[in-house]
Amino acid sequence: MPMDDSRPRRPDLRSVCVYCGSSETTRPEYLDLAARFGRALAERRLRLVYGGGAVGLMGRCARAAHEAGGDVLGIMPRFLERREITYEAVPHRMVDTMHERKHIMFEESDAFVVLPGGIGTLEEAVETLSWRRLDLHRKPVVFLSEDDFWAPFFALMQHTVEAKLTPTGFAGALCYVRSIEACFAALGAPAHA
Description:
Helix content is 40%, strand content 16%. The chain is α/β, with parallel strands linked by helices. The protein has a single domain (15-187), classed as Rossmann fold, CATH 3.40.50.450.
């Protein structure tokens, strides 16, 4: 679903939550995209809010944002500390449950960007979209990949619309872009700070 180029600039955009994978064994271009996106957030003086890990796309994005002078906040459930390895160079909030993690990530963010990821990334993104569908928020949710990674998900969403299980009008809440610049345009973010 294409980006709406008429979206206004958002002066209230200060923090962007990034949902993405924690796998180190994924395609190198996905890890590279995460690092470039982290640097781009820092360049625009937008705070990164993320799951707190030091591995996979999560770690690459956070490390790049931090090393570029950006503000980063990690939210890490205690039971995942060993698995996702907390990125200690940035501030963290430690929580007990995944529900707490998602709630704080939501509260601390003005927008959401979904990079390539697995079932955990999908779960976070779909819950955020569900809350949007229920009019619990109006924050932008943008899916970003430079290939067709998210195309099957958007085909599924279109299938639910065609089956009359998702309202046609909800398609406007879904945004899929294939470049970092298009992502920031969809968020209404400045080109650079």
